[in-house]
Amino acid sequence: MKRGFAVAVRARGGRGRGTPANPAADPAATDPAGSEGSVPRRLLAVATRLFAEKGFDRTSVQEIVDTAGVTKGAMYHYFDSKDDLLAEIYTRVLRMQMTRLERIASGPGAVSERLGEAAADVVVTSIANLDDTTIFFRSLHQLSARKQREVRNERRRYHELFRSMVIEGQQAGVFTDRVPADIVVDFYFGSVHHLSTWYRPEGEWSATDVGGHYARLLLDALRPGAPQT
Amino acid sequence: MKRGFAVAVRARGGRGRGTPANPAADPAATDPAGSEGSVPRRLLAVATRLFAEKGFDRTSVQEIVDTAGVTKGAMYHYFDSKDDLLAEIYTRVLRMQMTRLERIASGPGAVSERLGEAAADVVVTSIANLDDTTIFFRSLHQLSARKQREVRNERRRYHELFRSMVIEGQQAGVFTDRVPADIVVDFYFGSVHHLSTWYRPEGEWSATDVGGHYARLLLDALRPGAPQT
Amino acid sequence: MKRGFAVAVRARGGRGRGTPANPAADPAATDPAGSEGSVPRRLLAVATRLFAEKGFDRTSVQEIVDTAGVTKGAMYHYFDSKDDLLAEIYTRVLRMQMTRLERIASGPGAVSERLGEAAADVVVTSIANLDDTTIFFRSLHQLSARKQREVRNERRRYHELFRSMVIEGQQAGVFTDRVPADIVVDFYFGSVHHLSTWYRPEGEWSATDVGGHYARLLLDALRPGAPQT
Amino acid sequence: MKRGFAVAVRARGGRGRGTPANPAADPAATDPAGSEGSVPRRLLAVATRLFAEKGFDRTSVQEIVDTAGVTKGAMYHYFDSKDDLLAEIYTRVLRMQMTRLERIASGPGAVSERLGEAAADVVVTSIANLDDTTIFFRSLHQLSARKQREVRNERRRYHELFRSMVIEGQQAGVFTDRVPADIVVDFYFGSVHHLSTWYRPEGEWSATDVGGHYARLLLDALRPGAPQT
DNA sequence: TATGAATGAGCTTTCATTCAT
DNA sequence: AATGAATGAAAGCTCATTCAT
User: Fold this and answer.
1) Together in a domain, B98 and B63
2) By three-state DSSP, how is residue A24 classified?
3) Average pLDDT of the residues of chain B
4) In angstroms, rounded to a whole number, what is the distance separating the alpha carbons of residues B104 and D171?
5) Measuring from the CA of residue D38 to each C1', which nucleotide is nearest?
6) A53 with A138, same domain?
7) d(C-alpha A66, C-alpha D185), whole Å
8) Residue D39, CB, less than 7 Å from strand F?
């Protein structure tokens, strides 16, 4: 994104379900479609939806600006390129999830409680921002090499923090160490990233249900004791 | 794929195996169908590698045929479209995985053994065909609506079979039913599909290692007994 | 067409209505679709239908051979090119119409009777071979320059013969010469060539009706006497 | 045509008026929209000439834009497709001819005078726009099904108006009704549409000559009285 | 007499981006 | 802060024709 613009787009729920993940930050809720928020905000919101729906490469800049009700000139005034729009979405998602994880990991309580809370929270957040989740796991390779590296590094830091809780529990004997912490983390986040391929808001389970079940599965898998044959 | 061609491409795993771009310069012309298998076979192999490396939309037909050492006309002689190439890859993967799962599920042994074997096998197979795995979870939305439906149906059948083992164990009391079988299955296959985002053949773990760990995590999560808080 | 093949395709009616213009030449009437007559005959028949339906440029050789139930190799065995197919159609039409006109023009009877018969006959024949008529007026420019010249020359001979009857009548005082014979002929054949744009076999008028009306209009326009203001 | 552009191209007749292929080499840049009218206007003019010369399918978009001295992007900025260009030509011709006929038909004077004037006028107009006339009768089937229907409907309205004059004369006894008015109209417009296949501006007759002769033939054919045998 | 794989040139269309205003 | 005409490169696909068999 071009320097000098503070955009701070609020998170938007998956495909139309407005489930703000951070409702406190929602300023004006009286926005008819097409004129909500500032121009860059609108562009980012529209791009997120379209990228999730049709994929980055199949979404044209023309379509984005038409849907946002602005012109190409306006878009190129705020963003360097179409890639920039995608990079901005990644930045926003990473920042949000990192912030939440840091708060939980540094909180009080036993490590199993903190890990459980973090595991459930990332599920709930991923569901609340299903479009972001879809884009995240599907469009990484469409980012520039430079930006891909940035994203991967940031992601690694996130995984490290999560992993440090697993290791803490293993060292304390609260979790089994039959499976290396690295693998546990990749195992779990694979499940989380794939939520967008099967979760439907109108379906049987709420985001909280799924968060609870996923956390349960993780914690139970880490229970010490004789392995299941 | 156009009717009347039996292609039977064998699964190929890793990336980077070069295919001469200019087979005209190939002196050993004793191979009647080019430098590496028949033309459609070569096209499918090359397309798999390129789609996994760069994504479907970023791989041009020109690039595919140049790499396979044929012309566009030849490609369109065997395949209806670029989409058809992708569809063929999906068909091949689905058939292979379904066949393996059916064999394992109908085998002898306790349900926990069969589930564990199936869980490990799908990991090993996914790693042996990492390109296929990458394409599978990333390119579904680039298939035609019709073909997408077919793939999803076939995939559902696969999940059903896997789920039936989970349920069998839950009813027998071998597995806990704290988490619904549906969610267990989606949880596990999320992890499996995402193997391609982190697994590196040159890394610390063999495919069998990972298969063992993943199966272990699944079975342990299903162990009956008091839940971990 | 390649030398050495006698094809002698019988005329076929417009779009499915088998109204052979020259029924005496029809040898075998027991032909299931797809195997009627010799290969070149079938190709010509199929090409005629498709060229009339979709236009020359929009009909692919593949489509022609598929419909005729043969392969491309077979087609190129009998015809030099796709253009050759079209040229053959023109040759056939021209020959047929010229033969008929020569017979009528050299017959007995008053010039007005002969002109009327010729005028009606060309209408009936054009309707009986509506596909040919459609192709004739629409595809001339798709012929090679060489073949175009041939067709135009042949056409000129045909017009000359028709015109000679008009002039004969004008000189005999049976027809008015208010309008030059040249223009009368172009005027009339414009109407005839356009039959294929409006005439429908299932419609109100039979081919004979239209032939009668067209001949009537021509003869009445040529009646001597005070002009209509 | 894309919404929002008013093009209003004036009708152009003969062929061969060259348009510089390389307007970049045009020093007189005071004309803000290129060397000859606005870009869409130029494209339409060039397309009309080329479609008439070589046929719609044999004229490539590349050829059109090169001749007009613009790029493909520019063309697709103003027109949805190559078909759209053709559709625009049809719209223009239909509108022009309808307007003229309406003016004449609703004018004063006896029906025979009005019919004669209309008959001569359509000839003169068709000759003044020979390219349009060529395209009109030859390319209808290359239009989209939707647009074809529109054109046919508009054409039917035109024919209806012309036919209403014939019927008016027949009912008044000024014209014979030996031949149904429907057939008279199709007969006459066949002749008119085919003008482009034989009329040459450099030839023996002026457009007015031909218009007079054609109208004469029509009116004389409609004269009441004993038919010519 | 016929096959059908393969060619290679050409087609229409899309699109991110620029730039004069 | 914003417009929208124009660019230029590349995309997917079609097709008449050839040729070894």
Assistant:
1) no
2) helix
3) 86
4) 90
5) F5
6) no
7) 49
8) yes
CA pair distance C118, A87, nearest whole angstrom? 78
Domain carrying residue D44:
23-80
Distance CA C219, CA C212 (A): 10
Mean pLDDT check: name the lowest of A127-141, D23-37, D142-156: D23-37
End-to-end, the C-alpha distance of chain A in Å comes to 53
How far apart, in whole angstroms, are the C-alpha atoms of residue D32 and residue D44? 18
Are B174 and B61 in the same domain?
no
- Number of domains, chain C: 2
**CATH classification at residue B44:** 1.10.10.60
pLDDT tens for each residue of A59-113: 999 999 999 999 999 999 999 999 999 999 999 999 999 999 999 999 999 999 9
Residue type, D181: A
Q: Is the confidence at residue A24, as pLDDT, over 60?
A: no
Does D217 map to a domain? yes
Give the CATH number, domain containing residue C159: 1.10.357.10
Residue spans of chain C under pLDDT 70: 1-36, 226-229
Q: What is the pLDDT of residues C98-129, one digit of tens each?
A: 999 999 999 999 999 999 999 999 999 999 99
Radius of gyration in angstroms for the set of CA atoms belonging to chain C, rounded to a whole number:
19
The answer to whether the CB of D45 falls within 8 A of the CB of D17 is: no
B59 → chain A, closest CA residue: A57
Asked if D195 has any chain C CB less than 8 Å from its own CB, the reply is yes
| Residues 159-218 (C) near nucleic chain E, CB < 7 A | none
- For residues B67 and B89, give the distance between their C-alpha atoms in angstroms, rounded to a whole number: 17
Contact yes or no for C222/C184 (Cβ under 8 A): yes
Contact residues, chain D, for C55 at CB < 8 Å: 57, 141-142
Question: From residue D96, how far is each of B112, C40, D106, D126 by CA, in Å?
Answer: 82, 47, 16, 11
The conformational region for residue C37 under phi > 0 = left, psi -120 to 50 = alpha, else beta, is left
Instruction: List chain D residues with CB under 8 Å of C229.
Output: 110, 112-113, 116, 219
The verdict on pTM exceeding 0.90 is: no
Task: Note the pLDDT of residue C39.
Answer: 87
